[in-house]
Amino acid sequence: MLSEGGSFMKGMVLGGLFCLVLSLLGSFSPATESRTDGNDHHHHHVKAASKDELQQLSDSRLQELNDQLQVYCVVMVQPKSLVYWATALDTWTKHCDKVEFYTSEASKALEAIDLNEKDDWARLRKALKHAYENAGDIRWFFVAQPNTFAIIENLKYLVLTKDPEQPFYLGKAVKSGELEYVELNSGIVLSYEALKRLVNVFQDEDKCPERGRQLWKLSDDKQLAVCLKFTGVFAENGEDVHGKGLFNSKTVDSLISESMKQNPSNVVEGCCSDLAVTFSGLSANQMQVMMFGVYRLRPYGHNFHDLLTFFPPKGSDND
């Protein structure tokens, strides 16, 4: 009986330790967090302006917002993703007001900024710092991977009435333990103020180390959230006026397949927002199909009566 009791207690202790480790792995958050505004700020939902809200603005104000709104696209690439890299260059990135491809090492085939860095997090830090220092008057930044397809005009519509001098950190916000972060594979939007705070905290190795010091390695998007959290910037979910998410971590056909099972009587409505900003995990062929469907194919006689038109940058060879 004593040996059975000892075995039982030993099992309880080992089981407890195992659960503790799992809990720690799933709920990492920094021991302290700095809030610059003194207000308790939790993850919430940032919605695009409704048509009624836009109609309350004067034509001159709408035009002013349109003229001021520019997006700097930061695309993280590697030579092994050359096909996606080339496809992103040939498709949606032409609608960015400025785009830079940041690579882990130089490629003879395509032009990019060679960061000479293998570590994902260190490379992302260098890319964001470079974008901040070379943004000029651009006040919105979009970070993406090469197999993500983005509709930049819809991104601009989302942030049209938002002040880039306020800290915005937007995308598909998810939670891992106690840490809320924006998924990189769905695209990350940063306002100028958020990026400025981030670049400043890069200098603090205690709060935002270039090389992670944890017992386990955080993904680069989680590490980004940790560093931003120390500056009082928190993940926010980008949504349309109906509350549908605008940033998708799946392809269109995956989302439609899911909707066919869950909403067979209303597949399109159940799939995704009409003003979606991103879809992810696309093949090069799917990205070209998306480019055709979004920018080329149009039903004759249909007019959506949009109050604004976001034109691609001058010199772009896309619609």
TrEMBL record:
Transmembrane segments: none
Gene Ontology biological-process entries: protein O-linked glycosylation
Membrane topology qualifier: Single-pass type II membrane protein
Signal peptide extent: 1-34
Keyword set, alphabetical order: Membrane, Signal, Signal-anchor, Transmembrane, Transmembrane helix
CC terms in the record's Gene Ontology section: membrane
UniProt cross-references to InterPro entries, sorted A to Z: C1GALT1/C1GALT1_chp1
One Gene Ontology molecular-function label: glycoprotein-N-acetylgalactosamine 3-beta-galactosyltransferase activity
Cellular compartments annotated: Membrane
Protein family: Belongs to the glycosyltransferase 31 family. Beta3-Gal-T subfamily.
PANTHER family in the cross-refs: BETA1,3-GALACTOSYLTRANSFERASE (PTHR23033), C1GALT1-SPECIFIC CHAPERONE 1 (PTHR23033:SF2)
Protein name: C1GALT1-specific chaperone 1
